[in-house]
Amino acid sequence: MGATKYANRSIPRISLAHFGDRIDEITSQLIKAAETDGFFSLTDTEISIPEIDAIFATSESFFALPDDVKATVPFTHKNVGWEKKSQIRPSTGFPDQKESYQLQFGENMNDKWVAEDALPGFKPSAQTFMKKAQGVSEKLMTCFARGLGFPDDYFVQVHDVSRPDCQSVLRLLHYFEVDKAGGPMPESFYRAGAHADWDLLTLLFQRSGESGLEICPGREVVTSFGMGDTWTKVDFKPGDIVCNIGDLLMSWSDDRFKSTFHRVKAPSEPDDYYGPRYSIAFFNQPCLDCTIQGPLKRYPEVTGAQFTKAAMDRNYAALQAKKKELGQTESMATATPAVPQVAASA
Ligand SMILES: O=C(O)CCC(=O)C(=O)O
Ligand SMILES: [Fe+2]
User: Fold this and answer.
1) How would DSSP label each residue in 4-73?
2) Residues 197-219: what's their mean pLDDT?
């Protein structure tokens, strides 16, 4: 594998301090970041470093459970539950070398919470953190609504987490350690293959020292898989939240805001991080019955359900094309585990 081509891009760092008084200033900073690379980090949020450390400890304790216990809450197409080495991105054609556990607020989770006696305190700890992540998200939604000329509560209303059918997801992620001494990994090894998220916007919690997140801008329209060829490592300070625009907000802004391709690089170069890597994503997903259309009406009006279905169909078609390109036959394709169409990231 050749060396990765890197370019320096500055990923803006935006403070949410004194939000109520600074909302217009914060809005213009967010809009500028959304119009350029679609990635930024937040500082001075209401989530403290000890709270972030605590949810990572909770996440680690879940992934430390034996696989047969985690398998009691399997991934389902309602976009909840645990999967391991089974998400295949159209950009790679091979399963990501990771495991993840997706949690929601509402009824999709009914039988998908790990049992209290298997992991005491997990559910309340996760739910508390999810509410905090929702709080930060609502501030961003307010600013983006204002920036697009919608009423302030326009996005917040359709991401109402008190609705039993709310679709937003907290995703705990664990990427497996790679043996640095073991020589180069096969070309098919990816931590998280390049993808764009198809939610409204994503909050990403990262752990210091566990690098790997990289972005590759170059996407002009939401309906394409286009990306450039130079990557930028995402840097952040402890306690910051890395955020990115998803396909839904790209579409809802008539392609003004960018949903940028990103990946978690498989370690291959000396400075890369080879150890076990934990990260947490909070995907803001609207209710299925909401209607979506940008102020310029560039795309036809669709419901939340139709938007997600179109994104999944595009993803599926791209995956089939990739498999054909790799010469994978149907039997090879079915020999790999079932593809979870993780509804927030393609
Ligand atoms: O693990 C990370 O840092 C990124 C995860 C991600 O992009 C995703 O799950 O959509
Ligand atoms: Fe992602």
Assistant:
1) PPB------EEE-TTHHHHHHHHHHHHHHHHHTTSEEEEES-SS-HHHHHHHHHHHHHHHTS-HHHHTTS
2) 95
